[in-house]
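If your schedule permits, I should be very grateful for your opinion on a structural question. Please examine both parts with care and let me know of anything in them that strikes you as inconsistent. The record follows directly beneath this note:
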Amino acid sequence: MIITYFYRIKDSGRANRVLSKMSRSVNMVWNFCKLTQKEALKNKSVKLIDDKKSGEKLQSHIF
């Protein structure tokens, strides 16, 4: 279950513009991360890692 909190901030003027600008920036970063994750899962990109104990090559998913 995902819990989402909503807060209402009553303020006019400069503070409202600054909060709106910051929220757009956060949303842009969130969308970029989500798109990158979807593309990585679609391409099934993996990185090979050498295991020092066994000498085998292990696959590690890159997200």
User: Anything to note?
Assistant: The chain has a mean pLDDT of 81. Helices lie at 14-43. The first helix runs from residue 14 to 43. The radius of gyration is 21 Å.
